[in-house]
Amino acid sequence: MNIQIVKDQAAGGRAGFQIFQQALQQGAKVLGLATGSTPVTIYDELVASDLDFSHLTSVNLDEYVGLGADHPESYHYFMQQHLFSHKPFAQSFVPDGMNADAAAETKRYDDVIAQHPVDLQLLGLGQNGHIGFNEPGTDPASTTHKVALTASTIEANARFFDNANDVPRYAYSMGIGSILQAKEILIVAYGAAKADAVAAMIQGPVTPEVPASYLQTHQNVQVILDEAAASQLA
Ligand SMILES: N[C@@H]1[C@@H](O)[C@H](O)[C@@H](COP(=O)(O)O)O[C@@H]1O
């Protein structure tokens, strides 16, 4: 893992932008994208840049089950707001949270990933070590699946909803196995609340209890942390 420690989230946005720019210079055609507060400064840098995505494909990690593209807390809506409305891609894929048929939706999304292998996958990190919505205990070989969110993830994401009862209980997420297929992975974490998960991801054992620890098994991982997130590293 190649670790960069930056001053704050704004500096992390600039560092993340450089990694995107490099991947594009090296011919990346498919970008794996993520939601949450962490990637926002990277998207701001991408939007402010003269990079052109109109010939590229994006594939997002996950989506809440039951939220449509017009729901302000859906990941479709987030991506539209932060990136796609400013920098359209030739095609953008996000799991369809309104497809109630989980078997059909996860199969559809696995086919999308197979047809559009990801060159650079951006990831945030959950406080419990999750990536995408792959909660502790997820099979490391998993492909796209329907996930029951843990209480801690529901609580962490409740800040985006009027109250915790409004947070969806399920999501569709690329699996750990799907994520590890990407040629290059960029994982970003900020803040003291992520420090334990960061240390477990980088220096702990590779274990299903910390989904992000499987990144230790990948050959090309870039990590961007602020000092607070890096504070528990030995
Ligand atoms: N599914 C998302 C993850 O993809 C994200 O990485 C995580 C951390 O979010 P944040 O970046 O807001 O801390 O939250 C959610 O659970």
TrEMBL record:
Active site location: D62, N128, H130, E135
Domain Glucosamine/galactosamine-6-phosphate isomerase stretches: 21-219
GO CC field: cytoplasm
UniProt EC number: 3.5.99.6
Gene Ontology biological process: carbohydrate metabolic process; glucosamine catabolic process; N-acetylglucosamine catabolic process; N-acetylneuraminate catabolic process
Claim: Isomerase is one of the keywords in the record: yes
CDD domains the UniProt entry points to: GlcN6P_deaminase (cd01399)
Record family assignment: Belongs to the glucosamine/galactosamine-6-phosphate isomerase family. NagB subfamily.
Superkingdom of origin: Bacteria
Top enzyme category: hydrolase
Phylogenetic placement of the source organism: Bacteria, Bacillati, Bacillota, Bacilli, Lactobacillales
Catalysed reactions, semicolon-separated: alpha-D-glucosamine 6-phosphate + H2O = beta-D-fructose 6-phosphate + NH4(+)
Pathway where this protein functions: Amino-sugar metabolism; N-acetylneuraminate degradation; D-fructose 6-phosphate from N-acetylneuraminate: step 5/5
Keywords, sorted A to Z: Carbohydrate metabolism, Hydrolase, Isomerase
Function as written in the Swiss-Prot or TrEMBL entry: Catalyzes the reversible isomerization-deamination of glucosamine 6-phosphate (GlcN6P) to form fructose 6-phosphate (Fru6P) and ammonium ion.
Protein name: Glucosamine-6-phosphate deaminase
Gene giving rise to this polypeptide: nagB
GO MF terms held by the record: glucosamine-6-phosphate deaminase activity; identical protein binding; isomerase activity
Organism of this sequence: Levilactobacillus paucivorans
